[in-house]
């Protein structure tokens, strides 16, 4: 074995050279890796004894892509294109031996090899779109030449990782093998290619698949139309489509040039910067500085849940899906039956859509033990409370759980607004208490705010974070404060949205501005969906807010066919002239003059106070880092990922500009816009939230 450089080795096995890359964690194509391939290839090609080359990786995966940390930095080492040309134009066959994931630049590297062999567990994909990019190393030109434009369109715009068996069916992979024998099988395969004098196959020279689609623009038009909703707001999907069009319509070299131009445009744009930022933010969020790998994790095997309402049922499903036995406790048989019925209906629904087999539904339901007896939670390792949002009820329950739960059990609350420290104090073991703030619907929403109480023990935190990963959530550790991080910031937007309509903007104006910004829906459409009567009681209603007035008129939201909007039978929303009049009357009664509110003002007033609240949260240490807040907003509230999240969005605009806007609105509308000291400080220093 000869070391080519720190990350590349060359071994010559009689007539076959094996070029092996070892650059943890994912063998990304850094300058060192590219140099290693170039120099290793040069040596293998110069050795007359070598008849073919196998390109293989050490560690958990084949090359998982370009090194994202190098984007935007001055170029170093050989370019990927240079290395690729060396392989593709080599006079000896080169075989890629794939395990783990061949992604992005990694798959593009494999695509210039003359043959590809992969383990059955391997996956291939071009996920650049998720970074706001497109495959910039020939992927958009070579992929459709193998799999055809239809499959290529789907792969590059979704970024899906395709299983090796499917890749083999599509022709992306020539041979499937096992993990243990990959290297030996690849060497044997290369030897066979040499012995049989098989051609040096170059994907770039295939034309039949793309020729079949040539002169058929309707293919692309139909794809754009069918996916318009999915792609809304994003630049990258459209750019990817244009590249596949180029692959079909242009000669290879011209297509490659087009790909390069479009790649560069995306790379220099704000969307890709935001999406690449988010890629790292969504990995960073799992790191808790003072709860490291040296903190022991607790064993969690059995789950207890108290309350089988909206949240309890959804939370239970998360654990059932991951194979945990769950005991769910209710206070009445009726509530228990209702809760169980909902869980089953949810599963049946998924099965009906073909996403779960009937056997899986039964297996999951069989893991669930429904009961009215709290005592059955005595052997649970984690108990999550999802009872009414009432401090006395929760305190009483924690007192009981304290007496029932075994030593070492974690006691969690799903409260959305109550003080976790006060709840913890109701038990004699506050160190075992933590907040697990799931979002509704809990079986669907990715976000989990893990709430650290003043006394929560570190192993409890570590265990909660690990468990969150196991059940497929994105977890962010937050501190105790009203609304925690997400809802605390949301409250700012809700308040301004309500004030905006009293100033003269209509609910659909506010919703449209936020929808166009990239949210899935605006605050008023959201209220209609959730129901305006959440927490509303007719007897206590005094028409003191717009929401109360609408509830009193039985305009309780979508379910009532009317809320801020009017709804038809298909639940399509239409602006309501009735609501418009109600708002005018209500505003007049409050002595407010209606005026024209600009779209810019709507956006500023909805977004800037949220960012300002984020600054306060950071200053108080209720979030570990600004990027955690961004992860919370992308996963819990539909913040468009191509804008990164509220905090990086503010950084992108410039904190001086955000501050100036806050001051301007403070002068007009008062204390709701008082700038956070941290915002003032950072703006004065020319720093960003990301610098903290
Ligand atoms: N560049 C740099 N670092 C990368 C990387 C990449 N392409 N891919 C992963 N990493 C880093 C992660 O940031 C993480 O670092 P950390 O440990 O310091 O947090 C570490 O590698 C491990 O990553 P994950 O936590 O994501 O590990 P998993 O095992 O869960 O997943 C993976 C592995 C599926 C490979 C996943 O990391 C992944 O999807 N990576 C990105 C793949 C990708 O997008 N490739 C395309 C890149 S762009 C490109 O190739 C452009 C080209 O067309 C020119
Ligand atoms: P819910 O009213 O739908 O369900 C609560 C259930 O708890 C009811 O079925 C009730 O019978 C049961 N219950 C009450 N006291 C009990 C006791 N002592 N023992 C056993 N069962 C008892 O309420 P929901 O919406 O599920 O909320 C539960 C908790 O989750 C609340 O703390 C809420 O703030 C929080 N939450 C709610 C969200 C939502 O969108 N609904 C989102 C995030 C958190």
From TrEMBL:
Pathway: Lipid metabolism; fatty acid beta-oxidation. Its EC number is 4.2.1.17. Residues 303-478 form the 3-hydroxyacyl-CoA dehydrogenase NAD binding domain. It catalyses: a (3S)-3-hydroxyacyl-CoA + NAD(+) = a 3-oxoacyl-CoA + NADH + H(+). It is found in: Peroxisome. Residues 483-567, 602-687 form the 3-hydroxyacyl-CoA dehydrogenase C-terminal domain. It comes from the Bacteria. One of its GO terms (biological process) is fatty acid beta-oxidation. Its main location: other. Belongs to the enoyl-CoA hydratase/isomerase family. PANTHER family: 3-HYDROXYACYL-COA DEHYROGENASE (PTHR23309), PEROXISOMAL BIFUNCTIONAL ENZYME (PTHR23309:SF49). This is 3-hydroxyacyl-CoA dehydrogenase. It comes from Cupriavidus necator (strain ATCC 17699 / DSM 428 / KCTC 22496 / NCIMB 10442 / H16 / Stanier 337) (Ralstonia eutropha). The lineage of its organism: Bacteria, Pseudomonadati, Pseudomonadota, Betaproteobacteria, Burkholderiales.
